[in-house]
Amino acid sequence: MVGAGALAPHLIKAHLSAVPSLRKVLVWNRTVEKAATLANKLKESGEFAGVCFEGCGCLDEVVGLGDIVSCATNSEIPLVKGGRLKAGAHLDLVGSFTPSMMECDDEAIRRGRVFVDNEAAIDEAGELVGAFERGVIKKDEIGGCLVELVRGDKVGRSSSEQITVFKSVGSAVVDMIAAQLVYETYTRS
User: Is 75 part of a structural domain of the chain?
Assistant: First the structure.
């Protein structure tokens, strides 16, 4: 987990729920103490038996260990270096949401098969806008959007060695659906 802010515990829980075989979660943050605090909080919760949570101080040293590298930061400089991602890794970029922000470098975009949450990411995500401008990737090389993946219209990973990248900038429609789900769940209780 790259970043230890408000989204981090939710992303960690989501990935652990989706991939129950994960046994170790490393948390990195620019402020090392925040990473350690989040790791300790998750460890003490007891919610995920058998999962080891650790804070770490050097992102470059650990990013290559990750089957899943999930980023939730407001960084304007690339934090994840694509050359360090291992074959078959999944890179999750959900923090940056403007053209001036970027959580990974061009090499991560070049090496990965890129998917977006919605079409707005193509025009708003700094990782993609910059990569398009520099000729790293073309817009028509985006693998698809979340809805297309869910419906089965697009195929995700085509081999176990392929690196996948998911770029999210958020969507008011998804926020509305989530709010509706919370409301309906609450009113049923």
Answer: yes
Task: State the CATH number of the domain containing residue 131.
Answer: 3.40.50.720
In a domain, 20, yes or no: no
The per-residue pLDDT for range 114-154, each reduced to its tens digit, is 999 988 899 999 999 999 999 999 999 999 998 898 889 99
Residue pair 35/28 in contact by the 8 Å Cβ criterion: yes
Tokens of 60: 């470059």
- pLDDT at position 146 is 86
- Which residues, 6+ apart, have CB-to-CB distance to 51 below 8 Å? 16, 22, 23, 24, 25
Identify the three-state secondary structure at position 107.
Answer: helix
Alpha-carbon distance of 143 to 176, in angstroms, equals: 25
* The model's pTM: 0.89
Asked whether residue 28 is domain-assigned, the answer is: no
Count of domains forming the chain? 1
Residue 178: predicted pLDDT: 64
Q: Which residue has the higher pLDDT, 38 or 172?
A: 38
Domain range holding 93? 58-188
List of E strands, the chain: 24-28, 52-56, 68-71, 90-93, 112-116, 144-145, 163-167
